[in-house]
Design a protein that fits this description.
41% helix, 8 strands, 259 residues
Amino acid sequence: MLDHCSEVLQLMLPGDDIAALRRVIDEHFAPSDAIISTEPFGIPDVFVSDMDSTMIGQECIDELADYAGIKPQIAAITERAMQGELDFESALRERVGLLAELEESAIAQCLAERIVPMDGARTLVATLKHRGCRTVLVTGGFHHFADPVAEELGFERVIGNRLAVHEGKLTGGLIGAITGAAAKEAALREEVAALGDNAVSLATGDGANDIPMLAAATYGVAYRAKPKARAAANGWIDRGNLTSLLKLLEIPEHDWVLG
């Protein structure tokens, strides 16, 4: 047990069969929160996170669709995309197309009425920033949502998709390149490169389009994730909230910065 963080059990084991270790943990300790590393743990230099169902408890496009009266149709497409059953870009364009003619004002209403930070999100971001970690929110969702969420949670950079708007209504289209799996991984690698070869990175996400980012990070942590994303990560949070990451990184609770 770590003296200052008694909920965390740290195991130092011989060998390098990570897959076998994962199986044992899942068979005997599920649900669990864990990170498996072949190197000593360190505080991340950069934290890159997904937004929907990771930093917030909702899928923004699904909630926005409710204001257009088509939530079930869009939510079904979202779920298949997150499971990795549909191409993300095609699924995104299809869902956005269904929102054509929705009043832009519905976005602000949705933000106020539906969008809630995930438990522990503010404390996680504030504590990492206090330790000198750069924080980046990267989402397959939209700047209309991500910009205010990032400001509320304290992220320093935001990367996402832009909804096209004309005369106060959504056109059903997007502006610019799509932020999907490749863009998320590229954002992580760009941030790491700017900090130097020895930079320690932390990434969190829950869906299929987070997989390359999670796999590229020093600590890729799947948060309450879909099976494919969880399998691709070297860490997972199935049990606790986002502050479990601070415990796993050996940051004692008395050093947390409450957001």
